[in-house]
């Protein structure tokens, strides 16, 4: 894909990036890339969403300053790298387009058609979809430089990005996006082909089946399940991951445990009575002050702030673990 050589040709390494969609994820993507020094155009069809996004970005940056992750003098520089606009008139001339619009097949199909018509020949288009097979929606002319880059919320705190190649995606394009994300402080992994849910959401879906089965059938209360996981998997997974831990436990033992017929797992998706009951009562979690836990009487802004501070501290610990435990992770097989 020869035209991709134009990436990173600026003397300061800054790329021209368009982020389409300024909602929950889009504003976070703009923040991540602006902190990395890139020039960002943040677009949305709703001017109110754009205004809210810029306010959120400034608030997140102030948190980084408070936690000594950046200097106060850098805040206006980062903000100045982000320009908000409605419409898609500026698709042309961008090095990278990060699509984070509605998870609607028709809306995405229209976007990719317009991107194919307007984007420069060397522009890589990356979708933040969490489950859609976008490769079925985009025109053929876009396929070689189209991929999925699935970030996790909030992307300025959670470093993982799942890069998913389509049947026509150039491996060169995937490697270039991985490099851009690594320089931005993210932790990208590459999936060689599309599968709905990718890696993490498939694992979470499987775990969710068992979680809600244990709750619905009265085996354990939500808080007991959380305590059990935090005091076991929550300690082991950050150190060993979910595959490497089998090596430490012994693969012969793992084979024996996995073939044990006495542990019957839930093998189908079915509605959770407990979950649907809460939703039916309007208890939707933190945003309504009630869910599986009761948050009434708490300052929700402070609660989110506490979460973010702890996630930043955990990220530091994980970086330390990665340095000492995962330098040989590519020597598999």
What does this structure look like?
The protein has 333 residues and is of the alpha/beta class. The chain has three domains: 2-191, 3-Layer(aba) Sandwich (Rossmann fold); 199-269, N-(1-d-carboxylethyl)-l-norvaline Dehydrogenase, domain 2 (Orthogonal Bundle); 281-317. It is 44% helix and 12% strand. It is built from twelve helices and eight strands. The chain has helices at 26-35, 47-66, 75-80, 105-118, 171-183, 200-216, 222-230, 233-240, 244-249, 251-258, 273-280, 300-325, and strands at residues 16-20, 39-43, 82-85, 96-99, 124-127, 146-151, 160-165, 187-191. Strands 3-2-1-4-5-6-7-8 form an eight-stranded mixed β-sheet. It is globular and about 60 Å long. Residues 1-11 have low confidence and may be disordered.
In brief:
The chain is α/β, with parallel strands linked by helices.
Write the layout of secondary structure elements.
Layout: E1 16-20, H1 26-35, E2 39-43, H2 47-66, H3 75-80, E3 82-85, E4 96-99, H4 105-118, E5 124-127, E6 146-151, E7 160-165, H5 171-183, E8 187-191, H6 200-216, H7 222-230, H8 233-240, H9 244-249, H10 251-258, H11 273-280, H12 300-325
Parallel strand pairs: 1-2, 1-4, 2-3, 4-5, 5-6, 7-8
Antiparallel strand pairs: 6-7
